[in-house]
Design goal:
Blueprint: H1 26-54, H2 60-89, H3 95-109, H4 114-137, H5 139-143, H6 148-163, H7 167-175, H8 179-208, H9 214-238, H10 252-262
Helix pairs in contact: 1-2, 1-3, 1-4, 1-8, 2-7, 3-8, 4-6, 4-7, 4-8, 4-9
Length: 289
Amino acid sequence: MIEPLRVRSIPFDFGSANAHWHPTQPEWGHMVNGGSLTMPYLEPFLNRTMRAAREHIEDPQLRQDVDGFVRQEAQHYRNHRRYNEMLKAAGYAELDAVEATFEADYEALEQRSLSWRLAYAAGFETMTIGITEWLIDDRDALFQGADPTVTSLVLWHMVEETEHKSVAFDVYQALVGRYWLRLAGLFWGSLHMGLMSRRAYRAMLKRDGRWSNLRSRLRLWRQVGRFLSKAGAAMVHAMRPGYHPEQRRDPTWVSAWQAAYEALPEGELPLLETHQGGIAPAFAPPQPS
């Protein structure tokens, strides 16, 4: 039997973090904040869907993979929830109303059939492969000079998305397997996530007075364009009838991150170096510029 997915309980400390965690790229910073706001709603929905599916799965390996998926995702949204509370406390009280729309969206999705929910889950996880590759491959340009705690949160999350990238797809194929429904889930899961994130970062940029600033909007559109190109490439690849997530090669930095994590003393908080020489795969506190 294949080794179970590694579940890493990392208590990220957001005490010194703030909403403007990327001082040189504030629009990009709020895009990431918008994605973080969705996690405590999206990932519990994915977990409930996987647990419901697990009751119908006979393959013991796939059942083990589902268990690892659920445990990894639970660690993700718990850390994101703590980070999001910091965002709201930092003066973005309107995010409570945005989160209420997320909760309503997923309450509605819960009423759909298990087949549709599995298609949504597989579709979202497929799109995430492209985003993971982008964030890891372009990490220097995206995170250089940013708060190392937030950077570490994001890239840890992406590493674990890579580790369980096939699980939702394999569950869908085992229990449903319909090609056209898979494509529908791919497009709706990806679009829905993008629209939800936009609700959040739009509210934050409005609060900062940047939403109506042309230069700020152009910087935002540039990053949205990059997001769409990376997500779109992964989605196009996934549209082939013979597609499987394992056909996508993992970024080599993923294994470097994993090795660096394993070398950490127990209980040490992992922080990536973001200020000198790129985003280092070894963990260290940031050095003064």
